[in-house]
Amino acid sequence: MSHVYLDRLERTIKQHEDWRLRECLNLIPSENHGSPLMRSMFMTDLGNRYSAPDKFYRGTRYVDEMTALSEEIARKVFNARYADVRPLSGHIANMIILMSLLEQGDKLLTVSPENGGYPGVSHEGLGTLFKLRNLYFPYDDATVNIDAKRAAVMMKSEEPNLAIFGASFIPFPQPTKQLSSASEGVKVFDGSHVLGLISGGEFQDPLREGCSLLIGSTHKSFPGPQGGIILSNNEEVFDRVSKKVFPGIVDNVHLNRVAALAIALLEMMQFGKAYAQAVVKNAQTLARSLVAEGVQVRGASQGYTESHQVLLDYDPAKLKFISARLEQANIINDNGGRLGTSEATRMGYGPKEMELVAELIAQVVLGKKPVDFVQKRVKSLVKGFQSPKYVLQSVPKVLE
């Protein structure tokens, strides 16, 4: 019986890879393409081993060295004094922050989910779970950003214990520098979506704009494995947070993930600036080209985007319909109307291709062409972009 399930499993995985990698244009902003070298780390013995700060497990001399090396590289890439690569996801990193720095009844200030903020730290998620008082930044829909003047007044009045900048919908840098002294509470930047841009010197620089911590996912604009990271230049705050990781929240850190992250960090150390600049340029080209085709895009007054995200400007029901139609044409985005250029950039697409992508999207969104016609054009386009760029090419000696 097991061989029947094995056959089905292998067939399903192959179908996924053939479709998503060889036939689809992947524009989900919370996804990216991992390099072959990075992926190879998952196949090592590290995935079956434990390590712990209290040295409970023996035989960890090399995995401990590898983990320390990963954090050393992270500090260099992000110009940070401290780094912790143990969080298993950006959400877990947020959980660690809240459990370390807040108590029940404390005030937590974030971007509201209604304005594109991360639901996981809102009243819909950890805020209620940890019995916190959720507050939300005043927001300006026209600029698709926090309203800095109103936020400063609110922060002075409410004195939140913790303010988390960042959002799931984040086309523009947020006013962290302007608001860093608006209240006494700790300031954190959740860079889950824009971590790859920050590491490449684009977008903004939270650790030098008044934030004590930079946290985030490592698999969105940052082209690493699914996981999380915590970075800081503030010894006192970082120490409070780092001490809470083990054993309370993360026990097994998935050491093969840590090794894969080290590869991605090295790739960003070498190629990050060029990659981040290309991601933003592609997003801006895509946005302008969509508008030229007649598609509605948010943020017109600000130039549409300064990140990897382009936000379509339609009502929620229409956006859900659009995403379903785009999927039929093998163009993959999400129901929120977000289009991301990180993965396409990673695969070698440039501004010229973004103009074509905008044309294809417009043909679906505006009903200019039948879906099957667009699908054929997408498959033809994708065939020419099958080798990831901005990657290290060497094969690790352990796999030779």
Q: Explain this structure to me?
A:
- There is one protein chain.
- The protein has 400 residues and is of the alpha/beta class.
- The chain has a domain at 39-265: Type I PLP-dependent aspartate aminotransferase-like (Major domain) (Aspartate Aminotransferase, domain 2, 3-Layer(aba) Sandwich).
- It has helices spanning 2-22, 36-40, 61-78, 90-101, 126-129, 148-158, 176-179, 195-199, 235-242, 255-293, 316-328, 342-346, 351-365, 371-383; strands at residues 25-26, 82-84, 107-110, 133-136, 139-140, 145-146, 162-165, 186-190, 213-217, 228-232, 309-311, 331-332, 338-340.
- The strands form four sheets. The chain has a seven-stranded mixed sheet with strand order 2-10-9-8-7-3-4, with helices on both faces. Strands 1-12 form a two-stranded parallel ribbon. A two-stranded antiparallel ribbon has the order 5-6.
- The two termini are 34 Å apart.
- The mean pLDDT is 96.
